[in-house]
User: Fold these one by one.
Assistant:
Number 1:
Amino acid sequence: MKTALWLYLFLFLAFFDLHAQYPILTPFALSLGAGPAFIGWMMGMYSLTHLPGNLLAGVLIDRKGSRRYIVFSLVTAGIILLLQAHAQLPWHLLLLRAASGFALAFLSPACMTLLASLSSDATVQGKYMSGHGIVHTLASVVSPAAGAVIVAQAGFSGTFSTLGWLLIATGIMAFFSVPKASQLRAIAPIPKPLKQETPTRFSRRYFLLPFFVSCSQGILFFELPLSQSGGGSKGILSTGILLSLLSLGALVTLSMFFLNRLAPAIRIAAALLAMAFCFFSLAAFSTLPIGLILFALGAAKGVLFPAMASLFISLGGQERLGRTFSLQSIAMSLGSFAGPVTAGGLRDEISPYFIAFLLLMTALILLPPGSAQRLSSAQGWKGRAA
């Protein structure tokens, strides 16, 4: 448990740093002379360069453990942010975001693998994954508004420098506190199975789920700052507050631990439907309060992500956690690339929010809860509280 608490602290600081940039990047790119299409490519490039990192992470984490890759991601991303503070042209920002995407590609698979490997019991793993979601959401509640406040006081350069040093300091703390692979085996040894088990095969179409979800998220993070950018510093602050409301909604449902009594597939289907209706409301009903819609969207995300992690743990097996989470991260990286690029190219023709609605409804149609339910039940999911 001590290892999990240390990891939660590092995750909080890292997620705080990363989410604080969301309301800042689009106005910063606009100040450098970038247009909407270029901004879409800039945000998509960050996700595209995740792919080689994700491919490497899946194999390396299973072989060598998570510690070194957590430290590498945090320190390298911090150095890149220090350089980003001095960007003068749009293509400078594009290259630095691409480099940051590769560096941070190792962080999520490494952290989730480390958390899942702290125990071989599915119930305890569920608790750790819920804790991961709560820490992530707590950081994202305060960080967008905090980033907007910092940029109002220190400007873009000062904000990126501050966030960069914070990431570097977090990486140094992780180097001294996260256990090595040998120490981790002593903390949570994996019991030997009574009989040799054949690695589970499951349809790769389940990785379409994180692809469509991250695609819709990328569209939201592209369109929301752009639609609020007309108000200058007030627009940045407004974007930060709205993103905080999104995360606050997720925090509410993440705290409802009784939801974990439901099988992952049921939670996934309900969350996808709720998210789709939220995006449809953003596209079709301009009179509805956007803060309320984003709060509901966040609440649906709070149901979806722990359920999705539990589903992939049950499908992938204990010995293939790194590869499973790496494939999940690859799917999310592809979606995060495709979403902003598509929205930037079609923004003048169709509402990006309606594109997100269509993607989520497609995910619900292609991934009917019945098939996933049978697969997760076959892996031993009993629907107990996590």
Number 2:
Amino acid sequence: MVLDDAAWMEIALRLAERNIGNVCPNPSVGCLIVKDDRIVGRGWTQEGGRPHAEVMALEQAGEKSVGATAYTTLEPCSHFGKTPPCSDALISARIKRVVGAMKDPDPRVDGMGFVKLREAGIEVVEGVLEREAEELNRGFITRLTKKLPFVTLKMAMSIDSRIATKNYHSQWITGEEARHSSHFLRSKNDAILTGVGTVLADNPSLNTRISGLENRSPLRIILDSNLRISIESQIVSTAAKHKTIVFTTVAAEETKKKQLEGFGLHIITINGDEFGRVSLIEALRSIAKKGINSILVECGGTLCTEFIKLNLIDEFLVYRAPIVLGGDGIAAVEGFGLSDLSTAPNFMQTKITRLGADTLEIYKRQI
């Protein structure tokens, strides 16, 4: 059966999904080399961002690339970075036609990859499954266009939006399937962020605990204005194994900083907000400058409320259990003085999935 451009691009997009959360600061790209309606080469961005998808696919195709069509989920790069341009590699391989899903928002490329291919006599088709490609690399796009990472807030709560009982008992609100989903979600993000309050209360590891994905644990980020984190916490004891950044303020003691750095934590001092807490916007900007495309936020009600108040959440994931904890339970979101419905943060539900007895609700921010 002869497939059309969209069908081939769907396959390329599935390849690109393989290393999402594992290639920053690069985007995750998929590439197919197709000749005589057969795939002769496949590639996807490898761990750490290299090699690029096009190079991997061309190497697999070899001489079969001559006269073939390349399907790539992102415009081939046209600049010299740590590797030569992928557009040059496609030209050298004598590809006849290139089908691209979307332009690269990187100002070093921004359409010039397609221009270079056309100037070499290669037929170029743009915009095939563009929306799907943009969704796949939303973190990369957000970082380049807004100078911020794409932020996903994840919470597990009861039907009545409580995250714990009145005495803070919360393990486990949701069932095994929901927790498995949550760990898979961690593996698809570049970093996971929480506040020191959650570290002190729950002593989490913040790693990925799924068989076969143990090496896909994200960078851990802790917000700790006064460095209250315990030396005996799992975050500190595993810092040599899992890279961890702690954002703090000038209020933190230098002795504690040096002590934590001795365990392998990277301490970054930034401005505090009006209450002396780590400034969320400054922390996110710093994270983006480090090339982090996406962050998963797992936190308690206080930090969750601050993210929502400051309009810093791009996507809201709610794992909801079929239980009721009552009005004296701990609220998922604390009060923030809202008096007019027209000023309420607005999200649109995009998906709802059944996970055993629980449900996963996905909401995206309305701009």
Number 3:
Amino acid sequence: MKILKRVALTLVVLVALLLLAALFVERDYAVERVIVINKPKQEVFDYIKFVKNQDHFSKWNMMDPKMVKTYKGVDGQVGFVYSWNSKNKDLGIGSQEISKIVEGERLETKLHFIEPMDSEDDAYFATEAIDSSSTKVRWGFKGELPYPFNILRLTMDLDKMIGADLETGLSNLKTVLEKK
């Protein structure tokens, strides 16, 4: 009986220490990757502002060909919503809504993940002309890991994890656009 009490007390102390530590771990995160595409800025922007085009370059959109996708509104305009439902546990269920467009410059979206964990993030694409025939594209995510899940930041490198997928997507985007 004493052993069970010690084990229980040890577990309670361990959980309390983790919860205490989580109070001091950063909750916000931001990940961004950049690529240069050999196409004029407006042509690049006109492609990325349509969320449905992510089916052709986003690693996430390509991970489950059986993913159920629904759309509401007019793609390429503020208020357009793309929703997905996947049996792939890495994709889950969620939606992406165009929240802001600065024509030729920036597309901002709100991501709402329902499964596997309820959360909301902001994503964006930004374009910048390098010259008349090449464009710098930035793709980024900003979000927050709620307490106490923010303790996972001590063991997870979000920049590396999300960044690798952004790099794959940007590389695919470059290939798609430069073939046009």
